[in-house]
Amino acid sequence: MDDAFGPIGQSEDGGYRNPGFLGFRYDYGACTQDVRNRFTFSPQYHLPFGKGKEFLNYGGVVNEVTGGWTTSFIFQAQTGNPIFLNSSNHGESYPIRVGDPYAADGTDNPATQPNFVCAARTRTLAQWFNPCALRNPPQAAPATIPSQNPIAESIAGTVPFGPYGRQSIDGPGFRDLDMSLFKSLSIPIHESSLEFRADAFNVLNHPSFGNPGSNLTGSNGQAITRTRFSGIIPDARVLQVSANLRY
Known about the structure:
This protein is mainly beta.
C-alpha cells in the first residue's frame, strides 16, 4: 500500500495530487506492484532408471542411455495486479464504487454513468469488469450538462471530487508450469562432463492475459487486448534441447 504512484505532483500518473489541500488519504491504496497471493513450487526428482535403480537395472549401454536422468518442475501461481480507474467526467479523480465490479448486469444512470455499458458477463476477454458498479463523482459544470453530474460552482472548491483512496480492481492472475529433463555424462579427460537437457516452458500451453482497459465508457473500454508478457517472455509453449560441454 502507498499514497503516491510516483514523486508527489507527477500528474501523468493520475490521482488527486493535491496533498496540501486534501491530504494523502485520497490517494492511499494498493501500489502498482501489489500481488496479494503468490505460490511457487519447485521439486526435483531423480528418475528410477539405470544401474542400482528400480527399473532397467543394468550396466553398460543401457545405463548410459537410461540412467542418471533428473527432472525438475517450477510451478507458479499468483493473483492479478491492481488496475486503477479514473472517472470519465474528471480524468484525474477516481470513480465512486456503488456495487461489485465483478457482478454482471445493472442499469446505467445517464447523469453519473454516461455512455457506460453494463456488462452481461464479467471476467471475460471482452469485458473484464462491470463499469456500472461505479459512478462518476460530482463535477463543477453548468447545470445544462447533466452527463457531467454537475454541482454548484460556488462549492466546487470545498468538496473533493471523488472518494477516499484509489479505486482499483484486480486484473487476471497468472499461472505457469515449466519442466526440465537433464543428465550429465562424465568424460575421462581433465574431469570433463557433457550435460544433455530438454526444457519446456509453459508446458500446459495456458495463455497468460494482460490487464484490461481501465476506461469506464464504451463497450470495449474494459476489454483485454494483449497477453501478459507481450513478447518479453513467450506466452505459448516453448521447447528447447541443448548440450553443454564442461572441461
